[in-house]
Design goal:
The protein is α+β, with helices and mostly antiparallel strands. The protein has four helices and eight strands. The longest helix has 16 residues.
Length: 165
């Protein structure tokens, strides 16, 4: 498969009280800013590509859950919040001419009718190796295997149909 034909799969974490899947649905496209972890930054800068699919995970929430799907809408570019002294993500070491932090734009694709909870994910043997579910996993941007991504979509569709379907 050519690099251009490769599709990547990702998971991003967000606190729904700060920015939820519903906010992304309302906005359509949003800068995924404020990421201040080098490994997550490197994933956005080096590996995320337009068209890649993204699971949107609500962290610091009850319940913890995958709430929907987004798509990477463009290549990574400098995160302007790093240069804004009034922003909580300001980084005095990051310079416009040599930015430390990047972001990607995410486009809303789907909000799950019924979110897929972390508890449900943990119950699936085929997701046992998923990065999100590993002890100590804290990355806010992380790769997901294609099979894992597809399995979560199946779970969401199944949950959305309800018990009587």
């Amino acid at each position: 498969m050519s690099p251009a034909a490769r599709k990547g799969y990702w998971l991003v974490k967000t606190e729904p009280s700060v920015y939820s899947i519903d906010d992304l649905a309302r906005d359509g496209v949003s800068m995924w800013d404020g990421v201040r972890n080098y490994q997550a930054r490197n994933s956005m800068r080096d590996d995320m590509r337009p068209g890649d699919r993204v699971l949107v995970y609500h962290s610091n929430a009850d319940p913890l859950c995958v709430a929907g799907v987004a798509e990477v809408a463009g290549e990574a570019y400098p995160d302007p919040t790093a240069f804004d002294k009034r922003d909580k993500h300001f980084d005095p070491k990051s310079k416009v001419e040599n930015p430390t932090w990047v972001l990607v734009d995410l486009k809303h694709v789907e909000t799950f009718a019924v979110p897929v909870t972390r508890k449900q994910l943990l119950a699936e043997a085929s997701l046992a190796d998923m990065g999100l579910l590993q002890k100590g996993s804290r990355l806010s941007v992380q790769p997901v295997r294609a099979a894992e991504f597809k399995h979560v979509l199946v779970m969401a569709k199944r949950a959305g149909r309800g018990a009587g379907a």
